[in-house]
Amino acid sequence: MQIHVVRAGESLWSIAQSYGTTVDVIVQANQIPEPDQLVVGQALVVPIYGHFYTVRAGDSLWSIAQRFQMNYLTLAQINGINPYQTLSVGLRLYIPPTVKSNAEALAYIEPRGDTVSEDVANQAREASPYLTYLALFSYEAKRDGSLKVPPSGELSSIARQAGAVMSLVVTNLEEGNFSGELAQDILQSSAVQERLLNNVLTEANRVGNVRDIHFDFEALPASQREAYVQFLRRAGEKFHPAGYLVSAALAPKASDEAQGTWQVAHDYGAIGEVVDFVVLMTYEWGYITGPPMAVSPINEVERVLNYALTKMPASKIMMGQNLYGYDWPLPFVQGQTRATALSPQRAIELAKRYHAAIQYDTTAQAPYFYYVDQDGQQHVVWFEDARSIQAKFDLMKKLNLRGIAYWRLGLPFPQNWLLLADNFNIVKR
């Protein structure tokens, strides 16, 4: 699989010609609505066997071979060059496919209302072939141990047909917000916990094709840190004999000193011991009411992952990944400015409409662009593209993580799924 960044003057025809493929193949892979209108800086995936690497300043045949886990003599032979020659900047080298590693993939899906809409069902159909777990969000725990149950419709059978299993997401959401008070009421009562876990078990058996019970308790008071660990331990004792895994979503932090509202009660080490895996919510550095920046800058994500690796094995860590970006009006005013969420595909459409060139932040490994709308309002958009998600996949492989967890389905990002399949053998349970 090749990632190609559009340059000024290029067309889909010229790009297809350079890789020996067709315009239709590229259009289909990237779901391009107007093939004759590309955006400078737009990252396209080109489905070819292997990919090409363009030599940069400082590269050597040996360093390139090391990067792609190849023997440098083999790389030279494939490309018909002298293994001892100095490489010219701009030289294009063919890199054959490497052996794929195994990884799990989880994606949250959130039906709204009383039924599963056809749109949500289609989201599940499109994504499930690439998933280990389809995570139904959310089962809202109540103060008496009962559950507010989301519609599940045919999601379980849709997942099963694609070889995926269901994960049931249990939260402390109350009236649309995570409630630390609600969680405390549950965590301080053994009877309520028992009732809640029994209700979750009943629901898992009803839904069918469930493999994982996933707890997403957020904004917990610091006083509930140990109680939450004991609750998750108790959940394991309840669900493991019934054949279910137990997992937990954790707020991102990079040190023991992180004491924010979202992080303080999430004890990475203790929780890592009692659950089968965790989802680290490594996104929302850029958020709706915050200043413009990448949603999941890779430098910050790696700091969180490196900290987590000091607390639990890599085999228990799922890296969280956003399937969305944000559009901020400028100038940003703290307490007033609100961003609008958008999909990567929508971001490209905006750049096209307002004739904006897409730029790329190499530190954050994230694309962005500026534009001025029809009312004269300036905006900045940070989003995800093929380059940014490939950087995350490279990080996953570097750290040998268990897998990746996406928040959430419903925001089109076709390049992600093709690259996920190109990089990993997705574990099916």
Automatic annotation (TrEMBL):
Residues 103-429 form the GH18 domain. Pfam families: Glyco_hydro_18, LysM. GO terms for cellular component: endomembrane system. GO terms for molecular function: chitin binding; hydrolase activity, acting on glycosyl bonds; oligosaccharide binding. Signal peptide: none annotated. GO terms for biological process: carbohydrate metabolic process. Residues 2-46, 51-95 form the LysM domain. It comes from the Bacteria. CDD domains: GH18_CFLE_spore_hydrolase, LysM. Keywords: Glycosidase, Hydrolase. This is Glycoside hydrolase family 18 protein. It comes from Metasolibacillus meyeri. The lineage of its organism: Bacteria, Bacillati, Bacillota, Bacilli, Bacillales.
